[in-house]
Amino acid sequence: MIDNFEKTELLLTMLKEALPIRANVTRYLADELANKSPKVILPNQCNIVDVVYTGDMGGILCWLDGNEENAKSPVVVSITHLSFDRNIPLSRDIEAYQKHRVKKLKQQSRR
After folding, report:
1. N or C: more exposed end of the chain, with fewer CB within 10 A?
2. What is the pTM of this model?
3. Is the previous residue joined to 43 through a cis bond, with omega within 30 degrees of 0?
4. Cα–Cα distance measured from residue 97 to residue 26, given in angstroms and rounded to the nearest whole number
5. What is the pLDDT of residues 91-110, one digit of tens each?
6. Structurally, how many domains does the chain consist of?
7. What does the alpha-carbon distance between residue 3 and residue 11 come to, in Å, rounded to a whole number?
8. Can you give the residue range of the structural domain that contains 70?
């Protein structure tokens, strides 16, 4: 099991209550979007407008509202590919989830 279900559910509830949440697009995400979906234009900062938990397979996914073009086909990404201003109330909880998930995924890939 990758995620701690109770902690993840609690974080998901807190995220939903705090929407919209300002997020920064990581360099990795920007590069992947440019390579795989060149028509999708995402600014460096965008708002998370919805979140859903997809289980261990996908973790917490975020719907991003970056601009009008994305309204037609929104961008949905893993929360692990976003960064957050440390001044937002949930930044520590989000960062703890990201670190835990990435660590568990790395451990799982070594097996």
Report:
1. C
2. 0.89
3. no
4. 16
5. 999 999 999 999 998 888 88
6. 1
7. 11
8. 5-110
